């Protein structure tokens, strides 16, 4: 499936992702926070707990693209969403990875943290318990993007000048969240399906920020970046508001 539309890529900015999340129906008791370290106890102590999900922005280097293609060639075909432990959406909107990363979190957190009569609640109603194909799920997300007017409302926000919708962007958003089976999942719309990173340990059951599997996978991406891109990474965490 080819990209059906191009949008302005979102900036890695907690305020933008929080505003978009609330527009989609996330409870106002949650917001996004910058994460400056996954290993420094002092920096981690500033994050409110629990952390329900993580969004990573990382560079699309030749090393990564080779790794992605190799792993996807080994992966099983992902056909439908029925009876899945985690919801995953194939990215069909060019430069829309920020929206997909956000939807991967909002569609998989507890329904208690989503407002009723919201766009995310409507999305959940459309997909829960149904034998939808990957293509059908993609069309639902494309309709959602049209309804929120991503470019007009969020594409030009931020502290840096926004590129045009058709510009090639070498940075990419993905998400990490716990599934219904208590496994940690890496969710990336450019991959072949959700990536099961294994069962969450006792230390990560309440807050995935403490999960070693999360730290190891993000460190893997950092270690495999070339020198030019060693610092082109950003992390945001979804957790309680600070107000």
Automatic annotation (TrEMBL):
GO cellular component, one term: cytoplasm
MF-aspect GO terms: cysteine-type deubiquitinase activity
Recorded catalytic activity of this chain's protein: Thiol-dependent hydrolysis of ester, thioester, amide, peptide and isopeptide bonds formed by the C-terminal Gly of ubiquitin (a 76-residue protein attached to proteins as an intracellular targeting signal)
BP GO terms, sorted: protein deubiquitination; ubiquitin-dependent protein catabolic process
Site (Important for enzyme activity): 188
Active site (catalytic residues): 97, 172
Leading EC class: hydrolase
PANTHER family: UBIQUITIN CARBOXYL-TERMINAL HYDROLASE
Record protein name field: Ubiquitin carboxyl-terminal hydrolase
């Amino acid at each position: 499936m080819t990209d059906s539309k191009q949008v302005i890529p979102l900036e890695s900015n907690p305020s933008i992702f929080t505003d978009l999340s609330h527009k989609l129906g996330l409870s106002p008791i949650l917001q996004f926070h910058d994460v400056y370290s996954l290993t420094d106890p002092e920096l981690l102590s500033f994050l409110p707990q629990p952390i329900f999900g993580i969004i990573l922005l990382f560079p699309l280097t030749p090393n990564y693209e080779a790794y992605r293609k190799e792993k996807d060639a080994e992966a099983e075909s992902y056909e439908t969403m029925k009876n899945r432990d985690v919801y995953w959406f194939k990215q069909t909107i060019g430069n829309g990875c920020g929206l997909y990363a956000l939807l991967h979190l909002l569609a998989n957190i507890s329904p208690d943290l989503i407002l009723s009569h919201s766009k995310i609640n409507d999305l959940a109603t459309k997909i829960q318990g149904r034998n939808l194909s990957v293509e059908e799920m993609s069309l639902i997300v494309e309709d959602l993007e049209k309804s929120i007017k991503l470019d007009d409302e969020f594409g030009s926000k931020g502290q840096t000048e926004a590129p045009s919708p058709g510009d090639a962007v070498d940075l990419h958003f993905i998400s990490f969240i716990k599934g219904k089976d208590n496994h940690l999942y890496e969710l990336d719309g450019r991959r072949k399906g959700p990536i099961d990173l294994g069962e969450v340990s006792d230390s990560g059951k309440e807050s995935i920020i403490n999960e070693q599997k999360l730290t190891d996978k993000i460190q893997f991406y950092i270690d495999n970046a070339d020198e030019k891109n060693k610092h082109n990474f950003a992390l945001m965490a979804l957790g309680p508001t600070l107000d």
